């Protein structure tokens, strides 16, 4: 590995040390439905977001709640202390499409209709309020 590439890799590694988040991969629901739930909690304080997700009627909300709890646990593990109320906020949350399962449904006159079973990946990063202010400035 060259010097320039090593330096770049070390910078990326240092930047990742201050990121706290979690990923949920290959969720068997469409990205469109998951984005609706992600938009509900984007930018919220984490404990308020947990309350919103807990009482949401969406099936995807339960999966995002699980992901948020995991991200909080990751933050607590790296900082070696419990998260306090009003301290952590959802920095970034985004939904990407995952590989699609393609199936055929029988149709009249010897034809077949295509069924696309969609899935998605959700990535969530949390941070403190002062970190958010530094990034915006």
Describe the structure.
With 137 residues, the chain is α+β, with helices and mostly antiparallel strands. It has one domain: Alpha-Beta Complex (Ribosomal Protein L22, Chain A). The protein is built from five helices and five strands; from the N terminus they run H-E-H-H-H-E-E-E-E-H. The protein has helices at residues 3-17, 31-41, 46-54, 59-79, 129-136, and strands at residues 20-27, 88-97, 101-106, 112-117, 120-128. The strands form two sheets. Strands 1-5-2 form a three-stranded antiparallel sheet. Strands 3-4 form a two-stranded antiparallel sheet. Strand 3 (101-106) and strand 4 form a beta hairpin. The radius of gyration is 19 Å and the shape is flat.
Provide a compact summary of the structure.
The protein has 137 residues and is α+β, with helices and mostly antiparallel strands.
